[in-house]
């Protein structure tokens, strides 16, 4: 809820008080008169000096004359109070009183669907059966209103409905075209309604006819006797429709209003109506072709703005948009709309949202908006209540909401209310009118016998009638959605919805009534998109709830049985084993857990009815008629029907103990991501352990938990603000269970391998993780030097479905290169060496059936001991591999030394993907061992997988703490620290010096007092933009938790380090238009973005045209060449320090080390200290790229536009760790036909002309023009006889030509004799007139001497300038400079007055000044020391007034009237009108 600010009229008071609080001066001069002796009057507007914040302000006697009065505390406040509008004063008084409010109640229903006499089950906080019926609904609404008004004597109540009032209705409304429903809504006093998708079922004109109470159009399908004879009524409802526009008029159709304002006594409420913009996907195209459906969120904010402009701040939305869940679990389309509304207009002032469409129960507050939905079909209603402030015209708080069931005489508990007799009479009349239709014959059974609803047995629960019903639902759904290319896979219904056998007459006929008795509820059939895993979960819920389902389009088998325990309770071990999808053509394929399917179910099941909560995980994508209508229409279409038990649901045969399946799931490099949320970007993301949990659980459902292993491959506790800045380092948070481990425990991991980043925070953190985890942490090749023991377990063994599975964990042994001192007490053995050792131990000691290796290392590495590929190929006993570290997607098979293909899997980082390996095992009777018969390996993308709520709930405290942390402002950036990319995809920070890299290096130099610093760009898309800087920004520019070290390095090694860094650039060649990155290696060995350093403290050039090792040009430190033998101090991070050690460039221990404090923390502290950082202050332009003329080639703009338009592409490595790996060339432009031959003849001639002038001002432009000419000539030569260019390339040439022509013309004009210029002498003349009025006697001798000499010089200059013959020798600048000197000397002279009697002259000067001069004068005074004029601040004592500037006899000065007041940064400014009266 958003409060309206209405206190503008308190501005003056607020400013005065603010000024007082900051110690400033606020002065109000009271108007008063003194006796007048004479009549000569002059007036002038004068601005007083700006008052300062100093509380030592004094009264300046020069500015206070006798008769003036300075208001102090009480006078000031009194005068100010008098100037405030009476309404504002009243408002201020009212703050001490209780605000006047009006209680409001809004009662609502949604998705009524003509259910005038329908009962069913409603799932609110618990299941309620036999609820509904319009007569009872009427009684409930009346009772709710009565109770509200008894409790709130001044309260008001209103009733609304949220769409789908008609359509998909039971027969007693549907067969009468829902006209009984309209009559009943009038009796229910529903005042406001909106459109739903079903209002479009027969076209909006037909719906409008119904609510207008008009007869059917002659000849229409509705033009039947039964409908024509019905005593219809016009609806009393006002229809609201803000986001449906008639294409012809661009207005709401049929005059429906987008919003309405309802008045309740002294308050007003605005109601806006919207409908889901998915309607075109839900309704026949012919019924929506004339309408445009705009974004509901946009429609709401637009109309809310209009309402607010009319003074309406209490706003309620009635929306036919889905919602489900209670409080924190609220979700659905409605919450998405609210989130978007608040993005579009945070001040939208929407307080409540009545939802519909999804037929589910919803009630809670989402982003300060009450969201509520009362199931459907009149089985419940919504009751929203709140108080509206009369003054603000807004709800005082977010309204409360209750969803209540509509109890009946058959419900439990039973209703105590009397059903509305008038409503019941309408229902009875409708039933009687359709009675003849009920006996209509609609088909027959093939054998003339009834079709039974009985199930075949208690175990399988298959029903012949259930098969007929679901077959009909599936067929009609497929026909309905055929044109939309939406394949429908299954139909499912619940046994409880089949209420009777399908009876036949003596001759086998089926009547409409008999079919309706089978499916009497009129449940709306819905098409739902649902994951295979959720479908399996729903099928398994049969065995938990013991409510069973009938299916079509699938068959399934299950294992287990139902038995009785000793205490008489039931033990049900049944579980779905296999599900087979049966296509429309009869093809059979296995159901996949991660695939999305389309299923037809009734709205009862979709809402979680009968305990089938898994169905609520689906997404509604379409609707059909009620189940009754579908069943009737299916029988009519078939004419003759038959059904039998077909074995769609069968007990699985006893399992073959000779064959088993093992599923291995793996994650790697999750890097601290738990929620699907990016703390760096402060928004949701498509990754994280919560998504991993959902997928893992779905596979466990699919395969059985006993057949699934889940391992993590390391680098999981580092990488986000949550981990690196809080839970890995904060002493208080370290006392709590680590949120990563908490999440992994919830998910149910079997093991975790240590990655290199697990060592970033020291061994104490690792020991803490070991204690907290319910699974083992592994690293076989990490040893403690002191005792030779493992730091953690080398392997673990788990049993899965009778298989003994060993999991071996190993860590890339390069950790000491990166974490140095943190691991100095540890030893890391080579991977292959350790794997062979451990496999031997495992086989001898554990005798496993399967060995899995989880290796935190890339397949390839320049160091053999660090390459996982060597383990894959040479340790043949291992059956499957999970690898990582490289953040690459790997799903392959690699042959080992014996020629056996082994599955190898690795996934991208952050929990955005995970790996899946399937091992099909067979038992070999000869060897008495399990063997792998077949294997598969795949990578699973988690982008579209929902996040698991259990994981999020377990880690919510940590998530909330991180959100709070990242929102803390640590400083401000005065401007962007990175320029906009010239070429999209090429980071500017690696093309030239930028303020961003300079900032990092400046921090490093300041902390270490080093000579040189080196820093890299950690992410190609890092940004530090103008505005607030938070910790998320720091994390974005410095991703890793590195520490800062200071080391000593020789000049020789420093240059080698710089050359090594410069190999990042690919060598420039003629014809290149870009300089690309990554070096010469293949995709897997490209130099990563964060391994290229840029240096500070050293000036240098990088010649990218030179080969690697010869690129650093002219490196100097403090203007001197780098001395090979001298040692320099170098500031780098600990990761780079490890690399320098590895290369032998640094041998000594660091002289400076911030461990455990991170460099990221130093950057944050640096910004905090400065408060505001300025790019211009940080940037150091000490290096540049040279040797790449293509960077200024005239065709470069053509290339840039081609990239921006997607014609050319700047590529990155698959893992996105190296940007800009491909060079764009002139050939690329030619191949894409982006350039042709250009005409350069005119440019060539203009160059020749320019050369003849030999004008030094043309030198640079001529040089550029010659370069362009050479480039264009070369292009034409390269193109040969190609087409002429008539596009961008020629336009560029033409522009260069034009620029040169204009420069040549100017040069020619400048070469001519200048005409005599007439000088402007008026200002000098004026100031000399003033100067000559000064009298020597009034001023100090020395001051007058200086002044008079200057006046002589000025007079001489003026006389010379007036002589026509010499006017060309004196410039206007000389005249202006002299004018300025005389003006300044006049002001200086007044500081040396020896005669105090100056009032008259000062007054005359003041009167004669122009307004700007007066303003300047005042400003000059205010800028002087405390001896200058000051006005007392509120609360100060009046000071004695000097006699200076008092009026002379007979003279009077009068009132200051306040005309304006402002407060800027603690400084008050008061504008006065000063009236001066003086004796003639």
From TrEMBL:
Pfam families associated with the record: 5_nucleotid_C, Metallophos
Q: Which UniProt keywords apply?
A: Coiled coil, Membrane, Signal, Transmembrane, Transmembrane helix
Q: Which portions of the chain have biased composition (kind: Basic and acidic residues)?
A: 66-95
Heme among keywords: no
- Give the GO biological process terms: nucleotide catabolic process
In this chain the Calcineurin-like phosphoesterase domain maps to: 105-361, 663-888
Source domain of life is: Bacteria
**Its Gene Ontology molecular function terms?**
5'-nucleotidase activity; metal ion binding; nucleotide binding; UDP-sugar diphosphatase activity
Matching PANTHER family: 5'-NUCLEOTIDASE (PTHR11575:SF24), 5'-NUCLEOTIDASE-RELATED (PTHR11575)
UniProt name for this protein: Gram-positive cocci surface proteins LPxTG domain-containing protein
- UniProt source species: Vagococcus bubulae
